[in-house]
Amino acid sequence: MAEFNVRRVELILTYHSGLPKAWLDNVWAYEIFLIIGELDGNIAYGSTDYYEMLETKACSIRTYRQFIKDRSAAGELLVISRKNRKRKSLNLSENLRHIFRSL
Question: Chain-centre distance of CA 34, in angstroms?
Answer without folding.
Answer: 5
